[in-house]
Design brief:
Layout lengths: L6 E5 L3 H6 L9 E5 L4 E3 L6 E2 L8 E3 L1 E7 L9 H4 E8 L2 E2 H10 L4 H4 L5 E3 L3 E2 L3 H6 L2 E5 L2 E6 L8 H11 L7 E3 L7 E3 L4 E6 L2 E8 L1
Parallel strand pairs: 1-13, 3-9, 4-16
Antiparallel strand pairs: 1-2, 5-8, 5-14, 6-7, 6-13, 7-10, 11-12, 11-15, 15-16
Bound molecules: zinc ion.
């Protein structure tokens, strides 16, 4: 059980991902929330993670996740506010989301279901320069399907923490899923999804 408080997520934070889904590129950060019950663990044994059934396509979105170590205050730097980083999957019911978007309804049914936010173990915040040089990636059944680098973000980490901190508040135990690069796609029961930090595996799951 991974204890977290608020689970913030950033939508459309990589230009090529916004474009691949036919969405406009945002002019300010687009923030949504998942319940803390959405969190579950990814580890090296690839535990089975159950997804909702018969609700259309389930998509993986691979994301860098920040864990907040203290209360936000204006002017605080990312280095001081963020205690650790992990990799996560923002599982999304894409067909449900399309219906919801068409109706203008909230995203909870598509993004906030149980097990929709798996997380790897964390490492201490390595600093922006180290993150700039790192590549995070997703392998689906052994094949690289997503590869991301934070230098391609539309809104960088400092902008995200300032925006979320000022509008909604940030405190110890909150996490931020910082958005997915391009290459999102469907996954079905039996797929093995594994998250890598450069060439090092941080955790994975078998889709159930
Ligand atoms: Zn996402």
């Amino acid at each position: 059980m991974i204890a977290v408080n608020n689970v913030y997520c950033v939508g459309r934070n990589y230009k090529k991902h916004a474009e691949e889904l036919g969405n406009d590129v945002p002019t300010e950060p687009m923030i949504f929330l998942k319940p803390s019950h959405a969190i579950c663990a990814l580890d090296s044994n690839n535990p089975t993670i159950e997804m909702p059934k018969e609700v259309g396509e389930v998509h993986y979105e691979t994301e860098l996740v920040l864990r907040i170590g203290r209360a936000y205050e204006p002017g605080i730097t990312v280095e001081k506010l963020v205690s650790s980083v992990a990799l996560g999957i923002d599982f999304t019911l894409r067909d449900v989301q399309s219906k919801i978007k068409a109706k203008g309804h909230p995203w909870t049914a598509a993004k906030g279901f149980r097990n929709s936010a798996p997380l790897t173990s964390e490492i201490a915040f390595p600093g922006i320069e180290a993150l700039n040089e790192a590549t995070f990636s997703m392998r689906k059944n052994g094949e690289v399907v997503q590869s991301g680098n934070i230098t391609n973000m539309i809104f960088d980490l400092q902008t995200l923490i300032d925006y979320i901190g000022e509008h909604y508040g940030l405190g110890e135990g909150d996490v931020i899923y910082t958005g997915t690069p391009e290459g999102v796609g469907p996954t079905v029961a039996g797929d093995v999804l594994e998250l890598y930090w450069n060439e090092e595996k941080w955790g994975g799951c078998t889709v159930g």
